[in-house]
Design brief:
Radius of gyration: 43 Å
Helix content: 55-70%
Order of helices and strands: HEEHHHHHHHHEHEEHEE
Number of strands: 7
Strand order of the largest sheet: 3-4-5-7-6
Number of domains: 2
Length: about 400
């Protein structure tokens, strides 16, 4: 990209490679590219060529004395040298050529180059003002220095048309450059927006992964913790109870591994739910969840007031399942021994309500570490589904989680 800017106009190159800019005493300046040097040299040659034609015409004009011809040629030579300043002071050079052009035929080429440069590098208001003054000065010029070979009106009309065409050409070049820069800016913004969208998608994916991993594994790992703790603190428990606890631990570990494998498999290949062999749970699997909790020693009362749980949309049913699962997991950790009530009610066009409540735990409860991320994740999950979720402690020391999900 940096190499290619040497073949672009300096204004465009500065936009593509801002490091090319350097300052000077007069303000912002951009180092010339290779193309700029070639164009400036060509314009210098054009100014010299037109200046020689003007000098020859001045020498043949009987209305001019020999001293005026020499002065005309000196002014024209100085004007041609000033072409190299056109990029730095386009307005100043155009104004100077407007004044010099009134007294010099040889400066005509430089004047045209200055007008073109002004139209390219400055807004339209400068071109309109100076262009109007330049056209208005043509009748004055030919009145002071008449051309003996060409009629007055023809000379005025021809030169005025040339000046207008030069300004029009310059404004066309300026518009094209602005279009190029605008397209480049649009492409850059599109790239930045695409990068931001990709970053946002990655962040949302990470959040979804974290939420799903928490919902899937927290329930299983809590079962492992509870039964492992029972075995640790009751080593003299009956053999049957130890075997039962070990079986729950083994089954919970197996289920946790299966759930983990399922989530990772879906995330890796974006596979359908049925391809992993373990479909995502829906509201119809709520009975199984409650049975697992009861097998783990919890007291759970299920009040399912939905006529046909399988008729609940899969996405809504899965969200309701995860809410109940997380609430049961929290009740198991923070209120062991308390009876938990799970109530699910609703109908199409009315919405689905999920409520999980537990009273204060009987006896002291050892402090259990928790960050509250599970409840935050449930709130986000309910919000993404178009519903709402509330949770908090009651006056009796219990805790309640209530959610409403749309069922349309």
């Amino acid at each position: 990209m940096v190499r290619s800017t040497w073949f672009l106009p300096s204004a465009v190159a500065a936009e593509l490679d801002p490091d090319r800019e350097d300052g000077d005493g007069g303000g912002r300046r951009v180092r010339r590219t290779l193309r700029d040097w070639v164009v400036d040299f060509c314009f210098f040659l054009i100014a010299v060529f037109i200046g020689l034609i003007g000098a020859d015409g001045a020498a043949k004009n009987p209305a001019l004395s020999e001293h005026m011809v020499v002065l005309d040629q000196l002014v024209g030579a100085a004007s041609c040298a000033a072409v190299w300043l056109r990029r730095r002071w386009p307005v100043g050079l155009a104004v100077a050529m407007l004044l010099v052009g009134l007294v010099s035929d040889s400066a005509g080429g430089t004047a045209l180059v200055a007008y073109f440069t002004l139209a390219v590098h400055r807004p339209f208001k400068y071109s309109a003002l100076i262009g109007g003054l330049a056209v208005a000065s043509i009748p004055v010029f030919y009145w002071l220095r008449p051309d003996g070979e060409t009629p007055y009106l023809v000379s005025v009309g021809l030169i005025s048309m040339v000046i207008v065409l030069v300004f029009a050409w310059g404004m066309l070049v300026r518009s094209r450059r602005q279009l190029l820069i605008a397209l480049r800016d649009r492409a850059r913004r599109a790239e930045n927006e695409a990068a931001l969208r990709a970053e946002q998608a990655q962040r949302l994916a990470r959040e979804a992964i974290a939420r799903e991993m928490h919902d899937v594994l927290a329930h299983r790992l809590t079962l492992l913790s509870v039964h492992a703790g029972a075995l640790e603190f009751r080593p003299d428990a009956p053999q049957a109870e130890i075997a039962r606890a070990a079986g729950v631990i083994r089954e919970s570990a197996h289920e946790a591994l299966q759930d983990l494998r399922q989530v990772i498999g879906v995330l890796r290949g974006g596979e359908a739910e049925t391809s992993s062999g373990r479909p995502q749970p829906t509201l119809a699997a709520l009975d199984t969840l409650v049975a697992e909790s009861r097998d783990a020693g919890m007291k759970v009362v299920l009040d399912l007031r939905v006529a046909d749980p399988k008729a609940v949309p899969a996405a809504i049913g899965r969200t309701a399942y995860r809410i109940a699962q997380e609430a049961l997991t929290n009740a198991r950790k923070h209120a062991p021994g308390a009876e938990v009530t799970v109530t699910v009610a609703g109908a199409p066009d009315e919405g689905l309500t999920v409520a999980v409540r537990n009273p204060a735990p009987p006896g002291d409860v050892p402090p259990v570490p928790g960050s509250g991320q599970g409840l935050i994740g449930l709130t986000e999950r309910a919000s993404l589904a178009g519903g709402r979720l509330a949770h908090g402690a009651g006056r009796d020391g219990g805790f309640a989680v209530e959610a409403w999900l749309p069922w349309g």
